[in-house]
Design a protein that fits this description.
single chain, mainly beta, Immunoglobulin-like, eight-stranded mixed β-sheet
Length: 683
């Protein structure tokens, strides 16, 4: 029987708006029913709770003085701490509302997601920088979720392998608390404020990560963010080494919007974009819960769904690996409850007009394949007989701001990705519109559509729906509704720099195994010379010597070779980039290469040889990639084919600050298990 990692290349789909290689799925050996002690998503309410709008004035931090003018230096203080929050979960036995312990960001009060930053760029009259003090007030001496201490993480760094010679194994969460460091995802930030995973710090700064010793003046939790940037859809989230997946799962994430003189966020903006209350921002995540409302994360042998996430990968973990059978890191994680801005399957009440929506995929591993379908009032199933054909909407921007508008009825949103869309509810009075998800509960192989059912992990799947929009608010005729994509025709940015004379850098994505036989995703390099020999691609773990070293103020073209069976959302810190094209290639697998682990043990990755191009011509960027990006999806090929096939994607970026940054897969379970490397810009 095929495993999760085995798949068959079926065909290729082309169209005027979309190109994707389509791969067949893989069957699961079994699916278990809703487990005792867990919340059953089929019994939870759908589209009852109103979704908080992250752009609601009550949800915002602002960089304005009381008189409405820009502050000379916007200065905020945010606390990361624990709170209890209603998510919309109910106890099906009695209908009572349940509350969930989560971690959040905020000032006087904290929430999941954290409060939204909305700052003005310098070009629009804003300050040179925004200053944020990130207070770690996670005072409890335990994590909300199980921590795999055999993973390469903050408190596993040892003296001969850490940058400052400190043996971090002397520290523990029980004694020293949970380390965090916040990353402004998409920011052009000096390296010490970027949220590098080794810049972590414990509550009250008692324990500081090793890279702080390289910073003049040492540790600070006051970060400075450059406002000499155009408008963008950024977000912030925790990035602590080996804990990112857990800290974000617990709730440490929020929106950060930059506004400029064009995309002002106000009704009088020169582009005619819908503005609040017709501008919405939603962070889409997935979670599992106990039947008492607590967050649940499978990590122990015998946990529900543990086998699907761990032993389903073929790993036979030693019985004495963990004292008392302790937790292990997951290959990937897929939750069975969809959560939008902290509410399960919420709704919004809207007028019959154009709405602008900022959609963030904040999941661990799930690719969202989204559509909007109209149904009759009260319907909760996006596949109901009353469901319309998918509605057309406009993709007007992505991670780093606005781009060339493109009409579509389907949008793929990768983990960590953000997209800016305009949806027209005109003519749908009294209807309900469901934001539908075609993506399966499994690693994404580049396919989407109604054929994903075999990939679903959960019985009676509810993750095919995200939220609903009830078109029941009377139209306010006093507010113009004159958005046109033509308004954006002259507002289209690409990444800084030019391709002429740019350096080409070849990097690679691998899937190997760690010392315990667990799936271990890895990054690496591809030889620059003759690719027809043996050992042409090398995989590395996090702590091995840096191989990505762009010069300061240089422009580079990165060729990202995917040697795996899955799509990977690749994120580069510091830069925005232009996605140039994609190209298929073929190669041979000749044995294994040895991969050194952080604890001195060894794992393996496939040995790549005789790498050669397959296609005579490349495929350009997708319709939803026509704006500056900080995320790019590296699509897979068929590593089990004869010959093996893969796909490379080319991006172009300019590196305008010096220092130690990172690049990584934004599947957080992959990032935390070595699919992350240092990016050293300049000396």
């Amino acid at each position: 029987m095929p495993t999760r990692r085995q798949f068959i290349k079926a065909s290729a789909v082309t169209g005027a708006a979309l190109y994707y290689n389509v791969f067949g799925g893989w069957g699961r050996a079994f699916a278990i029913p809703a487990a005792a002690g867990l919340s059953d998503p089929a019994q939870q309410p759908k589209f009852r709770e109103l979704a908080p709008n992250a752009l609601d004035p009550g949800f915002l931090f602002k960089d304005l003085n009381e008189n409405g003018g820009p502050a000379q230096r916007p200065n905020f203080s945010l606390r990361a701490r624990q709170t209890r929050q209603e998510t919309g979960l109910i106890d099906p036995r009695n209908g009572r509302r349940l509350r969930t312990d989560v971690w959040g960001y905020g000032s006087d009060t904290v929430s999941w997601p954290g409060q939204t930053f909305q700052v003005k760029s310098h070009s629009a009259g804003g300050a040179d920088e925004t200053v944020v003090r990130w207070e770690n007030e996670l005072q409890g001496k335990q994590h909300l979720l199980p921590v795999d201490e055999n993973l390469h993480w903050a408190y596993s760094l040892h003296g001969d392998g850490s940058a400052n010679g400190v043996d971090y194994r002397q520290y523990s969460i029980k004694r020293n608390g949970v380390p965090i460091v916040t990353h402004l995802h998409g920011g052009k930030t000096d390296f010490q404020f970027d949220g590098n995973p080794e810049f972590f710090y414990s509550p009250d700064g008692e324990v500081k990560g090793p890279q702080w010793d390289s910073v003049p003046g040492g540790f600070t939790n006051t970060f400075r963010y450059d406002n000499h940037v155009p408008a963008g859809n950024l977000w912030y989230h925790d990035h602590a080494l080996g804990l990112t997946r857990l800290n974000v799962y617990a709730g440490l994430a929020g929106f950060y919007f930059v506004r400029d003189e064009f995309d002002t966020g106000t009704a009088d903006n020169p582009l005619g974009l819908p503005a609040f209350p017709y501008e919405l921002a939603y962070a889409i995540q997935d979670r599992m819960f106990t039947d008492r409302g607590a967050l649940f994360y499978p990590a122990f042998p015998g946990d529900p769904f543990y086998d699907d996430f761990i032993t389903g990968e073929g790993a036979e973990l030693p019985p004495d690996l963990f004292p008392g059978g302790g937790p292990t890191a997951l290959a990937e994680f897929f939750g069975d409850h969809i959560v939008v801005n902290g509410k399960i399957w919420p709704k919004a009440n809207v007028e019959p007009r154009n709405y602008r929506m900022h959609l963030l995929n904040g999941t661990d591993s799930r690719f969202l394949v989204t559509q909007f379908v109209a149904v009759e009032p009260g319907v909760t199933d996006p596949n109901h007989p009353s469901a319309s054909t998918p509605l057309e909407f406009q993709v007007i921007g992505s991670d780093q701001g606005l781009g060339t508008p493109a009409p579509t009825d389907t949008l793929v949103i990768e983990p960590g990705g953000r997209y800016d869309v305009v949806v027209k509810f005109s003519g749908l009075n009294g209807k309900r519109v469901i934001l539908k998800n075609l993506g399966g509960d499994a690693p994404f192989g580049g396919a989407f559509g109604g054929d994903l059912d075999p990939e679903d992990l959960f019985p009676n799947r509810q993750t095919d729906r995200i939220m609903a929009f009830d078109v029941i608010v009377p139209l306010d005729t006093g507010v113009p509704d004159d958005f046109s994509p033509n308004n954006l025709a002259d507002y289209c940015r690409v990444a800084n720099g030019v391709a002429n004379g740019a350096t080409t850098r070849r990097v690679a994505l691998f899937e190997g195994q760690d010392e315990f036989g667990r799936l271990q995703p890895l990054l690496g390099t591809v030889d620059d010379g003759d690719l027809s020999g043996t050992n042409v691609a090398t995989a590395y773990t996090w702590f091995q010597p840096t191989t990505e070293t762009p010069a300061f103020d240089s422009t580079e073209i990165w060729e990202i070779y995917n040697f795996t069976a899955d799509a990977h959302p690749v994120h580069l810190h510091l830069v925005n980039f232009e996605i140039l094209d994609r190209e298929d290639f073929e190669y041979d697998i000749t044995g294994e290469q040895t991969i050194l682990q952080h604890n001195g043990e060894t794992g393996v990755a496939p040995n790549i040889s005789n790498n050669r191009n397959l296609t005579a011509t490349s495929v350009g960027s997708e319709y939803f990639e026509n704006a500056p990006k900080d995320m790019v999806t590296a699509l897979p090929g068929d590593p089990d084919g004869a010959p093996a096939t893969g796909q490379l994607v080319r991006i172009k970026a300019k590196f305008e600050k010096s220092g130690r940054y990172v690049w990584h897969c934004h599947i957080l379970s992959h990032e935390d298990h070595e699919m992350m490397r240092v990016l050293q810009v300049g000396p």
